[in-house]
Amino acid sequence: MTFEWIKTPKIIRKIFSNYHWNYNPAGNSVYITFDDGPIPEVTPWVLDQLKQYDAKATFFCIGDNIQKHPEVFKQIVESGHSIGNHTQNHHNGWSTTTQDYIDNAQLCQENIDLALNDLKAPNNTSLLFRPPYGKIKPPQSALLRAKGYKIIMWDVLSVDYKTSVSKEKCLENVIKNIEPGSIIVFHDSLKAFPRLEYALPKTLEFLKQHNYNCKAII
Fold this sequence. Notes:
By secondary structure, the chain is an alpha/beta fold. It contains 8 helices and 8 strands. It has a single domain (10-214), classed as Glycoside hydrolase/deacetylase (TIM Barrel, Alpha-Beta Barrel). Strands 1, 2, 3, 6, 7 and 8 form a 6-stranded parallel sheet that branches. Strand 1 (29-35), helix 2 and strand 2 (58-61) form a beta-alpha-beta unit. Helix 5 (98-118) runs parallel beside helix 6 and helix 7 runs parallel beside helix 8 (193-209). The longest helix is centred in the middle third of the chain and has 21 residues, at 98-118. The mean pLDDT is 95.
């Protein structure tokens, strides 16, 4: 990710108003999201944490990981969470041609749809897309939105992916910036796990204590 504002400034949300920086705040709802999975070393642990708090989330999956770990993808779907597209190979939109980027996103979507079909699971969510690193060119965004995708960004960044950030700071980044409608970014990746393992359970406990409802983006 490029944008390391912990709380995305309102001016950025206004300039890039075609993207979703937050979501429906009704019912004190917040939206936890996970990027870069699914992987067997981390994703099942995340699912267990969410289940303990009766929380739903949105997983922006890399297509290559879906192919490598279909059993983990199945666990996400069967747990009732939403699925989003994070490209097939974690492409950086700024350094990828528009056609290659769209093709890579489409390949990821084909793997999502194929996996859902194999599970005989309906796709009950919209076409959701999060650009890896937050990097996407306007033509790439325009083409994806023309295909029906919602471009899902965030307004609260945990920075769990950054090894120089302490696990305590990761938690603070989240709980000090949450408000109704917030889209929160975590990563179900090996790199992020030392911070995620500490911050996610405490975030879920904080949300429960403050009467937030964790919902999936649809």
